[in-house]
Specification:
Structural class: mainly alpha
Number of strands: 10
Shape: elongated
Number of domains: 2
């Protein structure tokens, strides 16, 4: 069984990285890129609690949930990419001595933390805040590999996937957290899976009712504790087996010298199973305390409900409240973005918006005919768009607007320094162009007459794509910058409130 499990683990880990690598915008056609995120039960349940809707793609989560009710917590050792990576990095953690392995692989009360964390995340989701993506193992790996792993691999290996490798705003924190999770295996095998993983906790709760499980024939057990030597879950197969902690790695069955352990239907034998070890009082305290977490996040200074000018979301994004209830911070949209403009947010959207995607136009710009981000979003936070819908071709009346560009006349070369420049007008992709210029003739301070083209923005034509800001030759802050004001997804984040035709202006 161990050999079969390793084959399955290698296949699913290879499939995960294959889908992640081909998510490069030139290679994704015809593949279900967000498959692993769509079959994530924690993402499906968290999203349902937050938005009271289940996005179509997340029905795939039943592929994991239903078998868990019959087989147990098989996902953690057989399919989960982070679980398999932790297992690989933890191979040498147990040390050469059996006694050291027995000590590290025995159950500890510390393992209860993941259940309290799961309670926290689900209660916050029920209150309207979707934070499961911060701790969800699949979203965590996708985000970490997008921001750190694959760009580093491309640069170190000279693979040449990108002429200029992608860079990410605030990526150092995401990178350090991911490497800390892997490094923790040096001190305890699968530390993340045993102690912190909320998806593992969810599957552990469901596995309490599984039909199949590890059965121990006490009359054949010699008490040698060999079953603990390679145990991945710390589930005590040598004593009272803890069903909710078992990863079904099957190592204990392979290591048992007397054949006292087997996996199958329960029999009328002397097998002893330990129920889920949770303190109900602490669980209730966690649930009650969780109710205060989300209001505190929204009451912070950074989460004031005023629209942040730098909070520019990808095309097709839902209104901000709905977006926050759907986005799991997985960075799948950042992975497929061809211009690297999508970046993980810091505090532009408040504490609840950390690591959600925003556009930073000095790094890239929104390609005029690109709609890839909506195609890979697993939760519907970014709606799938057609190219015609995005650019406003028939039958659509208006293009999708991300914001509006504004000039800083104190930094614009023709306006402030009498230096000819119309780069922004040249690169503007709309037709007719949202940026136009007026030819003026004026006298320089040295007495020379100079003819300049001074650019202007026509707001009703601007779509906020950011190419003007990205291409602006002024270093530092660009002379033209895009603000979220005027975005299509918001009725209130507009420059002027619309009034009814014929109504008199306010006094």
């Amino acid at each position: 069984m161990r050999a079969i499990r390793r084959l399955y683990a290698a296949f699913f880990l290879g499939l995960f990285f294959f889908l992640l690598i081909i998510a490069d915008f030139r290679r994704m056609q015809g593949y279900d890129i967000p498959m692993f995120l769509e079959m994530d039960p924690l993402v499906a349940i968290g999203g349902f609690l937050t938005s009271q809707t289940l996005y179509d793609g997340l029905i795939l989560a039943l592929v994991i949930l239903v078998p868990t009710l019959f087989l147990g917590r098989f996902f953690c050792s057989w399919i989960c990419p982070l679980g398999i990576l932790n297992q690989l990095f933890g191979l040498r953690a147990t040390g050469p001595r059996p006694s050291q392995s027995h000590r590290l692989n025995a159950y500890r009360p510390l393992f209860r933390i993941k259940y309290y964390l799961l309670t926290l995340l689900l209660v916050v989701a029920l209150a309207g805040g979707l934070q499961v993506g911060v701790f969800d193992p699949i979203a965590l790996v996708v985000r970490s590999m997008t921001v750190a792993g694959l760009p580093l691999l491309d640069q170190a290996g000279g693979l040449g996937i990108y002429a200029n490798g992608p860079i990410f705003h605030g990526g150092l924190v995401i990178t350090m957290l991911f490497f800390a999770i892997l490094a923790a295996n040096r001190f305890m095998p699968r530390f993340w899976c045993r102690v912190l993983c909320p998806l593992g906790a969810l599957l552990g709760v469901l596995s309490r009712w599984s039909i199949f499980g590890i059965q121990r024939h006490v009359e054949h057990c010699t008490g040698c504790n060999r079953c603990l030597q390679s145990c991945q879950g710390g589930c005590d197969p040598h004593a009272a087996w803890r069903r909710s902690e078992c990863h079904l790695c099957m190592n204990c069955i392979e290591d048992c010298p007397t054949g006292a352990l087997h996996y199958g239907l329960p029999k009328t034998s002397s097998s002893i199973h330990q129920p889920l070890d949770l303190n109900r009082r602490r669980l209730l305290e966690t649930a009650v305390g969780s109710m205060a977490v989300f209001p505190l996040m929204r009451s912070s200074v950074s989460a004031v409900t005023l629209d942040h000018p730098a909070l520019i979301r990808p095309p097709g994004s839902l209104a901000e409240d709905d977006f926050a209830r759907r986005c799991i911070k997985c960075a799948a949209c950042m992975r497929v973005c061809p211009t690297n403009v999508l970046q993980p947010a810091l505090l532009e959207g408040g504490w609840e918006g950390i690591w959600t995607p925003i556009l930073i136009n000095r790094i890239g710009y929104c390609e005029h005919h690109c709609v890839l981000c909506g195609l890979v979003c697993p939760t519907g936070a970014i709606r799938p768009l057609s190219v015609n819908q995005k650019v406003g071709r028939p039958p659509f009346d208006h293009p999708i607007r991300l914001g509006t560009a504004f000039f800083d006349h104190g930094r614009c070369l023709p306006w402030a320094m009498d230096v000819p420049c119309i780069v922004c007008e040249e690169v503007c992709p709309t037709s007719p162009k949202a940026i136009w210029y007026r030819t003026v003739t004026q006298t320089h301070r040295n007495g020379h007459t100079i003819t300049l083209k001074q650019p202007y923005v026509q707001p009703d034509l601007c779509i906020g794509c950011g190419i003007c800001e990205h291409k602006c030759p002024v270093t530092g802050h660009a002379a033209i910058r895009v603000s979220s004001v005027g975005e299509s997804r918001s009725k209130t984040n507009q420059m002027l409130l619309k009034t009814n035709p014929g109504s008199s202006p306010p006094p």
